[in-house]
Amino acid sequence: MPVTLRTSVPIPLTDQAIATHFVSFSGFSDGKEHIAIIYGAPEEQDTPLVRIHSECLTGDVFGSQRCDCGEQLQEAQRLMAVQGGVVLYLRQEGRGIGLYNKLDAYDLQDQGMDTYQANEQLGFDHDQRNFAPAVEMLVALGLKRIRLLSNNPHKADELLAAGIEISERVDTGVYVNQHNAGYLKAKVDQQAHRIKLPISAKSVDSQ
Ligand SMILES: [Zn+2]
User: Fold this and answer.
1) Segments making up each domain of the chain, as ranges
2) Where does the source fall among the domains of life (predicted)?
3) Do 197 and 184 form a contact (C-beta atoms < 8 A)?
4) pLDDT tens, 116-145?
């Protein structure tokens, strides 16, 4: 059964004049409640901007400085307020291990592990995220050709493999601080994320 559109509800967002709709779906392969936030009318654009964002309660809602999720989401919202687009918000907290396990992983990181080692220490793959629901939403929305806002090459690879055409990869900004520098460095060193870290940030992790 293909994923189908369930409900599209207008929800105005703070500081954004552009029309925004929250869209729900039926039939996700993983049974979770993922959501698309539609800015303007991307279906009328040749190559709408798309951000695939995995839920991060601590960063998205509370502004945690241990990661860069909140800043990346805000950046996507700023861009889409101007040019339209879609945020595909995936309900897979902590790279798919859940909120409590993520907090356990933070605890391990404070004892010296990096973000991937910590997940493995807890018995998980280093990254359990599943991007199939993002593809399912794009197909249900009729968006087969997009510009992808991401610095994660693995997301682009998964979309391409699923038949989504990516006309352009738009890197997200660099949001480094003293608390997340090691986390960002691990993303660059181990998973080839395209984050241009300043020299000062690269040295933080080796201290
Ligand atoms: Zn985060």
Assistant:
1) 4-204
2) Bacteria
3) yes
4) 889 899 999 877 888 999 999 999 999 999
